[in-house]
Amino acid sequence: MQLGFIFILIVSIFIAIFAIQNGNPVPVDLFLARYEMPLAVVMMACLIIGAVLVLILGTFRQVKKISESKELKNKIKVSDSEKVQFENNIKTMETEIKALKENNNVLSSKVSELEGKNNEQAQTIVKLTEEIKENNIRLEAEIVEGAGSGLYNEKSEAHSEWLWYKRCWAN
Length: 171
Prior knowledge:
Blueprint lengths: L1 H20 L3 E6 L2 E6 H110 L5 H17 L1
Antiparallel strand pairs: 1-2
């Protein structure tokens, strides 16, 4: 603030010295009129008119910069709010990913358990099938032995019929 005041004071002193040294009147033609004024007055008038024009143009530029600054600040606010929203979305998605991974692990363990049970059941089925085959062979052998001994009972007759149907259908 003080530097600006000192600068203006120095410029004012130079202008005053200029005005004192150039006090002679000079003719000025302005449009259709002719005036005679001291050179210092003409120079000061031109200086003031130039300063006013620069001030007006500078003000327009300053207003434009302020407007652009406000627009940029609004864009920054919007961008910041979008950033916060995106960060919240990322956190939500990360939470969902963790939950899905945990769910995937639980389901994988259940699949492993079910595969183990399935294998056990398959082994049980194989054992039962083997037992059925053994029982069929044993029953066929008993039927054949029973028929060879000459014993006649309803049970052996039923087995014989069963074997006869089995052989007929197998062929």
